[in-house]
Amino acid sequence: MLKVAKFGGTSLASADQMKKVTNIITSDTDRKVIVVSAPGKRSGEDTKVTDLLIELGSAHLKKEETDVVLQKVIGRYEDIATGLGLGSEIVETIEDDLRTRLLYDTANEGQFMDQLKASGEDNNAKLLARYLQSMGYVAEYVHPQEAGLFVSDTPGNAQVLPESYDNLYKLREKKGILIFPGFFGYSKEGRLVTFPRGGSDITGSILAAGIKADLYENFTDVDSVFAANPNVVDSPVSIKRMTYREMRELSYAGFGVFHDEALIPAFKSNIPVCVKNTNNPSGSGTMIISEREYVLNPVIGIAAQKGFSTIYVRKYLMNREVGFGRRLLEIIEDEGISYEHIPSGIDDTSVILEADQLTPEKEETILKRVKEELDVDDAYIEKGYAMIMLVGEGMHETVGIASRATKAIADQGINIEMINQGSSEVSLSFGIDEEDVDEAIRGLYEEFFSTKEVLQ
Ligand code: ASP
Question: Measured from the CB, is residue 195 less than 6 Å from ligand 1?
Answer without folding.
Answer: no
